[in-house]
Amino acid sequence: MILESTKYDYMFHNVIPNTIEGIIIFGATDDYEKPQKYEEVTDYENRIWSELFQNLELLLNQYASKEYLYGLNTLPIPNNALPNFKKISPLVESATGWTLLPVAGFLDEELFFDINKKKQFPVTDIIRRSPRFDEKYSNMQIKNNKGYTPEPDIFHDVQAHVPFLMDNDYAEFMWQVGLLGDEIIRDERGLGSDLVAHNLKRLQNFAWWTYEYGLIVGNDDYDDFRRVPNDIGYEIYGAGIISSLDEVKNVVDCAKGLASHSAFLNYDIEEIVLTCFDYSHIQDRYYVIESMDILYESFNKNKELFFFEGN
Known about the structure:
Blueprint: E1 25-26, H1 43-63, H2 66-74, H3 85-96, E2 99-103, E3 106-107, H4 109-117, E4 120-124, H5 131-136, H6 154-161, H7 168-186, H8 193-212, E5 215-217, E6 234-236, H9 239-242, H10 245-255, E7 263-266, H11 269-272, E8 285-289, H12 292-301
Parallel strand pairs: 1-3, 2-4, 5-8, 7-8
Antiparallel strand pairs: 5-6
Helix pairs in contact: 1-10, 4-7, 7-8, 7-12
């Protein structure tokens, strides 16, 4: 694990006490790979998946980005049963060079970015609210319900993230993020442990407000992908939103003026990297990009933001 330094935390905005206390975290020296045993998936686990997927299916068809819808429609991700990694991974690899790596759970930063730079995306085979999840954390009190769990599960990993990896530009972007994270950790610039920890937090903030909880300005041209036209002026590309019914409904309600919990803010990478986030509640803001190309260009042109050298 990277040093949990707070030396430069005075620079951050929206500081919220976040914790993943109790979550089992795997590192490179642990037995972190865990092949999926698809034949052992139970009917109960399939019912949990079905409920999660089908509650979101029509909403996502109406409001998710075209990149997501294309990937979802291309891959064998069923709406009524847990997906089989062995059927999905070869298709992703053929499309963009990425493969799925089944893992035992939450990975530390060093391992996560080392895997990403190899164009491997970690996926877990466990699903929220299942007996296997409860057994894994039988001696701990952690949040585990259909709306949220602090440990990413198969629904978040595969239903929300993996479809995007069928898009070449997105897949390249994710690879570049992985390479950058690995470069920060290796610290070839000799910045030291405090600055490594700080710059990793900057990258985590960027990831959170973009590919986990980001929105795009809506485009009517993409309504051909949808059963019902998008009527809110925004499209969802953040996987954290996509895998949460409550978060999707919040985006829609706030966009329609039916709720005011969350603000819609213009994308600003300098602001984003210094803005912290909340793991366990509905987000109070969403940053809106004009297009995915602008996101990719912004990231590539501003990588020095993630190598702050102190002052």
